[in-house]
Design goal:
The chain has 628 residues and is mainly α. The protein has a domain at 38-64 and 111-254: Serine Threonine Protein Phosphatase 5, Tetratricopeptide repeat (Alpha Horseshoe), CATH 1.25.40.390. 37% of the residues lie in helices and 9% in strands. The protein is built from 20 helices and 18 strands. The protein has helices at residues 10-20, 38-42, 45-62, 86-95, 114-134, 145-168, 191-206, 223-238, 262-277, 313-317, 322-327, 339-345, 360-363, 401-406, 464-479, 483-494, 509-523, 530-536, 543-555, 613-618; strands at residues 81-83, 279-280, 283-284, 329-331, 337-338, 356-358, 368-369, 375-376, 398-399, 407-408, 413-414, 417-418, 439-440, 455-456, 462-463, 568-576, 582-584, 587-598. Strand 7 (368-369) and strand 8 form a beta hairpin. Helix 6 (145-168) runs parallel beside helix 8. The two termini are 18 Å apart. Belongs to the SusD family. Its main location: membrane. This is Starch-binding associating with outer membrane. It comes from Parabacteroides chartae.
Length: 628
């Protein structure tokens, strides 16, 4: 951890910078002047309030779903998307294995790595200890505000540790300020021990923050965020990486504690159900967004149907309508990006640079609606008999409506124009064009043009559906399929006009789990989930996925469903064919699968991020993560 001699005065430097509002992020390296000392700061409520506001800013920077790696989301380093060569091919560096304990890819840091997270934790501890030491007075204008600020800081200390274990696994839990002169003899703790401490801090926050915030305070930490944090870490602790799975060449310090324990799924069930059942003034605090009557239409944000009646207004509006944000979003950071992000992802015909493009692995996860009125994967044994044609995959059967909201494909209507990946500026391989045959569509305000501006308020850090999936999975793991979880998952599907799961899932724990995992991939596509879940379930080392990978290597791109091993991605290209079913500009096409690239995922190395070598030099008691 970064504690150098320059940090001897970190406490006063931290306080002074926030008080004067004139320092940059490196204020901890600056010596305090004589304008205000530690005691003077903590004896004033408004100064402490300012410190907490700064911690909010750091929390937002540490976990931005749209640009987690500064210029890219996490999607292009998974089997969701492929990244362009912009910004020095940042995500391609990850996919080629170009990251190590010597350093992370250039310009990828925006506050999400080890050193920044521990710096944020230090700030939280400074506040908590300063308030206790100097008995900070309450806000005289609004009594009770100080206790809420303390609760928020407890939440953030837990939240930063959650971000640490998500990336690094076993870590030290730091619940006090560190004297730079002391021996830096910090040691990792068991994953489950850290989870318990996160939950304890979340409980401390829960007891202090309000049931909900309204008006200008909306978006601050409230009780639901505390419940959500507990549910997230309980779920993570129950997944195979930390509960019975096998990691190759496992050198984790506490691996003996990671044998399977059903009680961890029980704990995840209890924690997620607490969030689902949480009420304020007798009504459920969180509800699925269903919009109003107008949301049944295909109108875009200009009130026009310019998508061929394929993209329901509700499906993109759930990321912009305040009713959705206020009632479905459990934790979020508003104003994540401006219209520039959307412009970067636009196709060339809209003056975009297609920075992040969906891949076939993700497209295949969107189910079709069968003749019997239920949803099935396109790779199911029955799909072909039900009419699915891989040469006409987007129209031969009715696909999940979320597919049309999320992805542009050959033949899709966008801004009243047909996307053509065979010819013209949008063709595969063209300048600033797709390399996968697809363009991103999710989160777009489709009425927007480059001469306009707007703010993108999403995606959320956690939305209600994520906790529905956690609860459903926990119930399925502990008791098997039930009508309750069948109905809950179908509610998420129904609000997107997607058909229900077939009743057969009620008789099969394995089949129910397959639907839960597929739902997670579809509903949470491009929302900073896949990179973590694929690792938590140890998919690249799964015997099932390795068997599929062996067959895929022998048979090529046309062997699918593709393995989830993160070692290759695919696309879909149009091929002129007199018998093709897709007609654009008088030409007939069929679609054809092809491999885009091989990727590097080495187990166990890439399951967890490395601790930097310079951190280990400062703290030799730390043990490097497996494979690094």
């Amino acid at each position: 951890m970064k504690y150098s001699m320059k940090n001897i005065s970190f406490l006063l430097g931290f306080i002074l910078c926030l008080v004067m509002n004139s320092c940059s992020d490196d204020f901890l390296d600056k010596k305090p002047d004589d304008k205000m000392d530690e005691q003077q700061v903590f004896e004033r409520y408004n100064k402490v309030d300012g410190l907490v506001t700064k911690v909010y800013d750091r929390a937002k920077a540490a976990n931005r779903p749209l640009v987690f790696f500064n210029h890219f989301s996490t999607a292009p380093v998974t089997d969701e998307c492929e990244g362009s060569t912009a910004e020095k091919s940042l995500t391609n560096v990850f996919n080629a294995g170009g990251w190590s304990s010597m350093g992370m890819p250039d310009r990828s840091s925006c506050g999400q790595y080890w050193w920044d997270l521990y710096d944020n934790i230090r700030k939280a501890n400074v506040i908590l200890e300063g308030v206790r030491k100097y008995n900070t007075p309450d806000n005289v204008l609004n009594p009770g505000e100080l206790e809420k600020r303390i609760g928020e800081v407890y939440f953030f200390r837990a939240y930063f540790h959650y971000l640490l274990i998500r990336m690094y696994g076993e870590v030290p839990y730091i619940n006090r300020t560190i004297d730079p002169q002391e021996n830096m003899d910090f040691k990792k703790e068991s994953y489950h021990a850290v989870v318990e401490k996160i939950c304890a801090d979340a409980d401390s926050a829960y007891s202090r923050v309000p049931d909900r915030w309204l008006s200008t305070d909306f978006g601050r930490v409230e009780k639901g965020a505390c419940l959500g944090l507990k549910a997230m870490v309980r779920w993570m602790a129950a997944t195979p990486m930390w509960n019975g799975g096998t990691m190759p060449d496992d050198t984790r310090q506490f691996k003996a504690e990671y044998t399977y324990d059903k009680k961890r799924w029980e704990a995840a069930k209890v924690a997620s159900k607490a969030l689902l059942d949480f009420k304020v003034d007798g009504a459920a605090r969180y509800t699925l967004y269903t919009g109003d009557a107008d949301n049944e239409t295909f109108k875009n944000d200009r009130g026009k149907d310019e998508n061929g009646s394929k993209v329901y207004k509700r499906l993109w509006n759930m990321y912009y309508d305040m009713n959705s944000i206020m009632n479905e979003w459990v934790w979020f950071a508003t104003r994540d990006k401006s219209e520039g992000w959307q412009g970067d992802c636009y196709p060339p015909t809209s003056q975009g640079s297609s920075r992040q493009m969906p891949v076939q692995e993700q497209v295949d996860e969107y189910e079709y609606i069968g003749p019997d009125g239920y949803g099935y994967p396109v790779y199911a044994d029955r799909a072909k008999a039900d009419g699915y044609d891989d040469g006409n995959p987007y129209a031969s059967v009715k696909r999940d409506p979320r597919f049309h909201r999320d992805i542009m494909y050959h033949g899709a209507i966008f801004k009243n124009s047909t996307i053509n990946t065979a010819e013209g500026n949008n063709r595969i391989g063209g300048s600033n064009a797709t390399t996968t045959g697809y363009y991103l569509r999710k989160f777009f305000k489709e009425g927007w043009n480059r001469d306009q501006g707007f703010i993108i308020n999403g995606p959320a850090i956690w939305r209600l559906p994520e906790f529905i999936y956690i609860y459903a999975e926990a119930v399925n793991e502990t008791t098997g399929p039930t009508q309750e979880i069948y109905d809950l998952i179908n509610q998420v599907r129904a609000r997107s006009w997607m058909a229900p799961m077939p009743p057969s899932v009620l008789g099969s724990k394995e089949l129910m789990n397959q639907y839960i995992q597929r739902e997670r991939r579809v509903e949470l596509f491009y929302e900073n989930n896949r990179i973590w879940s694929s690792r938590l379930y140890l998919e690249p080392s799964s015997s099932t996925e390795l068997a599929k990978e062996t067959q895929w290597m022998a048979q090529g791109a046309n062997y699918w469903p593709y393995p989830k091993c993160q070692r290759a991605i695919h696309g879909m290209r149009p091929v002129e064919d007199a018998n093709g079913k897709i007609v654009i500009n008088g030409k007939k096409y069929r679609m054809e699968r092809y491999k885009i690239e091989d990727r590097v995922f080495v187990a166990p190395r890439h399951y967890l991020f490395p601790i930097m070598d310079d951190e280990i030099k400062r703290t030799p008691s730390l043990v490097q993560n497996p494979g690094w």
